[in-house]
Amino acid sequence: MKFDIITIFPEFFESPLSCGMLRLAKEKGAITINTVNPRKMTTDGVVDDYQFGGGAGMVFKPEPLTKALNSVITKESTLINLTPKGHRLTQNMVKEFTRYPHIIIICGRYKGIDERINEIFEPLEISIGDYVLSGGEVAALALIEGITRLLPGVLGNKDSADSDSFQTGLLDAPIYTRPCNFKDSKVPDILRSGDHRRIAEWRRKESLAMTIKRRPELLSSTVYSKKDFEILLEVLHE
Fold first, then answer.
1. Is residue 170 domain-shared with residue 86, that is, in the same domain?
2. Cα torsion for 124, 127, 132, 134, to the nearest 10°?
3. Which domain range does residue 193 map to?
4. pLDDT digits over 141-162, tens only?
5. How far apart are CA 72 and CA 40, in angstroms?
6. How many folded domains does the chain comprise?
C-alpha cells in the first residue's frame, strides 16, 4: 500500500515513521510513505490567505493544494481530507481502507482548506474525533498506523489485531501479565486455569460488560450469538 501525505510540515513525520511498527512495515515493503509539500508548489512559499466574508483564521489556498494533489494522484488513488467536519473514523472504516492500494491524505492547517478542493476532488472527509487539532499531521499518523497494522504480515501475530477493541464491535476484555500478584491485586484465577473454553467465555463476558459500562452505543452494531444474549442478560442483572 502506498500513502502520499500532503503537508507543509514533512519533517513532522520523520521520527514517527522511523520507529516501531511503521518502520518495520516499511522495511518489509508492506507500505511506502511519501510526503508532498504544497509550499514547493508556489513561487513565494505562501499557502494561506484571509477568508472571504471576514472572520478569524487563515485558509489554505486552493492553487498549491491542487498542484500537490495533481503531482501524485492516479486512477487508483483514494483521497482523504482530515477535518473536524468529516465522518468520525471507526475501526470498520479502517478495515475498509486496507483494500485501497493508494491513499492520499490532505493535512489541513490554519482554519481549514478552501472548500473548492472538496468540490473538485471529492475526497473522503474524515475526523478522528470530536476535537480540534492545529493540523492534520497527528490525525494522518493515527490513520496510517490504524490501517498498516491490519495489513498482512505487518504484525508478528495476526490474532493480536483480531482481538483488539472495536475489531469485533466491542471493547476488549481486561488483560494481565506477570506477576500474578501485584500490590495485593491478583490475576483472575480463570486466566491461569488452562481451560481455553472457559477463558474465552470469561473474556467475552468481560468484553460485553466493559462495552455496556463505557460505550453502550457500540452494542447496536454488533452481531450476537445465543450465548452472547445469555451473557448480556447475566451482566445486566449483576
1. no
2. -50
3. 165-237
4. 999 999 999 999 998 765 555 5
5. 14
6. 2
Percent of the chain's residues with pLDDT above 90: 76
Asked whether residue 157 is domain-assigned, the answer is no
* Secondary element (H or E) of residue 106: strand 102-107
Do residues 171 and 165 make contact, with C-beta atoms less than 8 angstroms apart?
yes
Measure Cα distances from 183 to 35, 108, 176 in Å: 48, 47, 14
pLDDT at 43 over 80: yes
pLDDT tens-digit profile of 211-230?
A: 888 988 888 877 677 788 88
Question: What is the rounded average pLDDT of the residues 70-86?
Answer: 97
Contacts of 149 (CB under 8 A, 6+ apart): 21, 155, 161
- Rounded CA separation 70/41 (Å): 11
Q: Output the domain CATH number for residue 182.
A: 1.10.1270.20
Instruction: Identify the CA nearest to 146 among candidates 207, 203, 82, 205.
Output: 82
